[in-house]
């Protein structure tokens, strides 16, 4: 968990440096958690992302740092993240970088395996409302479908991010007509990660994934 207490303020000439190292480190953590999305989309997602990560114990911000992070401009986010982006290769996302050990923890279940399934086994996926152009800021719908009944719920999220997935999933669990028994996703890193695995284990949910070529839509 990142714990950003108030960092020492350094001076540049006679002016105090507003965005200190604590802000930069916080933005790096949030950017990585949000799958390295662009600064414009990260800016829009910051309030909900910070709240969700703090709730799940992945982040702890001192009040002054929180205020500066939330007030940071898109241009400043670009400037502060520029060194990290250069190291990560510009524009590259992390979705393929899921460890084989983590994949082995989550068994594969194909559509052919859904025979005489009980209510409560859920297919989960994202729908991107981007009009076919994956640039700029747009909403992602997190969609849950009960395999046995076809009952479907969805919730809008500002980014594909594992902590937000848990927030959205928890919210929709309460609206489903049957107890959730299992969780089946594609191989998106927003679903295949330690946060989601730990959540499923803590709530006694069967955690499975679909083959790479399979899709809910």
- Ranges where pLDDT stays below 50 over 5 or more residues in a row are 12-16, 213-217
Give a short account of the largest sheet. Answer: 5 strands, mixed
Give the distance, in angstroms, between the N- and C-terminal Cα atoms.
35 Å
Instruction: Provide the structure class.
Output: alpha/beta
Describe this structure in words.
With 217 residues, the chain is α/β, with parallel strands linked by helices. The chain contains 7 helices and 9 strands, in the order E-E-E-H-H-E-H-H-H-E-E-E-H-E-H-E. It has helices spanning 21-33, 39-55, 63-71, 74-88, 100-105, 162-173, 194-202; strands at 2-4, 11-12, 15-16, 59-61, 121-129, 139-146, 152-157, 182-185, 206-209. The strands form 3 sheets. The chain has a 5-stranded mixed sheet, covered by helices on one side. It is elongated. Mean pLDDT is 79; it is low at 12-16 and 213-217.
């Amino acid at each position: 968990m990142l714990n950003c207490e108030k960092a020492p303020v350094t001076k540049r000439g006679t002016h105090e440096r507003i965005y200190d190292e604590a802000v930069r480190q916080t933005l790096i953590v949030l950017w990585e958690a949000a799958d390295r999305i662009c600064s414009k989309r990260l800016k829009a997602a910051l309030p909900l992302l910070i709240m969700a990560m703090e709730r799940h114990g992945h982040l702890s911000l001192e009040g002054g740092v929180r205020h500066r992070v939330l007030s940071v401009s898109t241009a400043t986010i670009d400037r502060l993240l520029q060194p990290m982006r250069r190291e990560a290769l510009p524009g590259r996302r992390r979705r393929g970088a899921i460890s084989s050990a983590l994949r082995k923890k989550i068994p594969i279940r194909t559509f052919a395996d859904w025979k005489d399934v009980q209510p409560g086994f859920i297919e989960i996926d994202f729908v991107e409302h981007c009009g076919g152009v994956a640039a700029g800021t747009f909403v992602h719908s997190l969609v849950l479908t009960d395999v046995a009944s076809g009952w479907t719920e969805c919730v809008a999220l500002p980014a594909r991010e594992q902590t937000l997935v848990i927030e959205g999933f928890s919210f929709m669990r309460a609206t489903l007509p049957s107890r959730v028994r299992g969780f089946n996703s594609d191989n998106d890193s927003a679903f295949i990660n330690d946060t989601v695995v730990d959540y499923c284990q803590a709530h006694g949910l069967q955690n499975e994934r679909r083959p790479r070529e399979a899709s809910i839509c």
